[in-house]
Amino acid sequence: MSRSPTSLWDSLLERSQLLGQDISKTEYFLMLSQWVLDHSDDIGAEAIKIYGLRRLCELPPDLYAIDHADVDVQGEIAALEHVKPTSRDVLAMILRDQLWDLVAFRSQILCPNCGQEDLRILSTGDCGLILACDRCIWSQDDHGVQYKGTRVGKPATAADLESKGHLSRSAHVSGSGRKR
Ligand SMILES: [Zn+2]
Description:
The protein is α+β, with helices and mostly antiparallel strands. It contains nine helices and five strands; from the N terminus they run H-H-H-H-H-H-H-E-E-E-E-E-H-H. It has helices at 5-17, 25-38, 40-43, 45-50, 53-57, 73-80, 88-103, 158-163, 168-173; strands at residues 106-110, 118-123, 129-132, 139-140, 154-155.
């Protein structure tokens, strides 16, 4: 018998409370993705599929610039306590948003179409990068020209970002929370 969304959420809160005060963003990503994989039967195949959760959870964290994400881990953990998802759909959507915020690097380029969000840097799969908006359908290439190809939802890897000079700025600003 599958658990209620409330009981599932409590289990995620318990897991997040086991994390220390100084965990890195990568460690937070690992906790969330492991929790999703451990509870995928309870979350339900349909919600997992709709929100692309398995694909996100199976991304190897060391290949992505997660520690450069513009995310305050302790703030996110504190915020989890204030949301009480009442459906599996909402629960899956919150997890998707959290994972996506960590793994999909945000540029400092405001979407020229809706003007609401900074564009995320995604990979086209053939070493090319596009910048895409989370809020509207806009995507563009590195030169700001609208991208007309089929939009892909895969975050750019740290190596891709570095090779195009997107990581150099934040690399010396944040000392990176990575341990070891
Ligand atoms: Zn937009």
